[in-house]
Amino acid sequence: MKTQPQRHDTLKKIVDLVEGIDIAMLTTEDADGRLLSRPMAALELDANGSFWFFTSEQSAKAHQLERVNLAFSDEDAATYVSISGRGLLVHDQAHIDRLWTPAAKPWFPNGKDDPDLVLLRIDTELAEYWDANGSRMVRLLALAASAVSGRPVGLGEHDVIRNPDRPAAPRQRSLIGE
């Protein structure tokens, strides 16, 4: 995945954590409220904290972009990142040309000029991460110390990051009997 320097210092941590993790699980919500996840190859993380993917304009996910989540996981490094935001389809041939890779050809047999190919931009509103020490031995010792002490000890860093440019919009909830 290509990464650009972030406009906000708060988002730099996301770049550090997801760099080298090229596959994310994209979760969307269908019309019946079911959560659906699928693996997606991340192509770019732009300067605004938005992730870019190729997708089919005809796919179901292309119509489920109001609320989305990206989950990145690197088990070996004990790094886990959850990105909440919104998605948008973008028709920009120059951007497609810049991000095109032959690895996308099986999904888009007509190449970068495939009429069904569009860009999917996921705008980060909120990111939550867990980042433990990369050493399995250190993690095992921290887990043992936590068990003995009855509280988390040395299990790593956890934080929530908000994108200052994209505050999360409150979701409207319906109550039974309204």
Describe the structure.
This protein is an alpha+beta fold and 178 residues long. It has a single domain, classed as Electron Transport, Fmn-binding Protein, Chain A (Pnp Oxidase, Chain A), CATH 2.30.110.10. The protein has 3 helices and 9 strands; from the N terminus they run βαββββββαβαβ. The chain has helices at residues 9-18, 93-99, 136-149; strands spanning 2-3, 23-29, 35-41, 44-45, 50-56, 68-74, 79-90, 117-131, 157-162. Strands 1, 2, 3, 4, 5, 6, 7, 8 and 9 form a 9-stranded mixed beta sheet that branches. A hairpin with a 4-residue loop joins strand 6 and strand 7.
Q: Tell me the total number of β-strands.
A: 9
CATH class: Mainly Beta
Global Rg: 19 Å
| Mean model confidence by pLDDT | 85
From the 3D structure, determine the CATH topology. Pnp Oxidase, Chain A
Strand and helix layout:
Blueprint: E1 2-3, H1 9-18, E2 23-29, E3 35-41, E4 44-45, E5 50-56, E6 68-74, E7 79-90, H2 93-99, E8 117-131, H3 136-149, E9 157-162
Parallel strand pairs: 1-4
Antiparallel strand pairs: 2-3, 2-6, 4-5, 5-8, 6-7, 7-8, 8-9
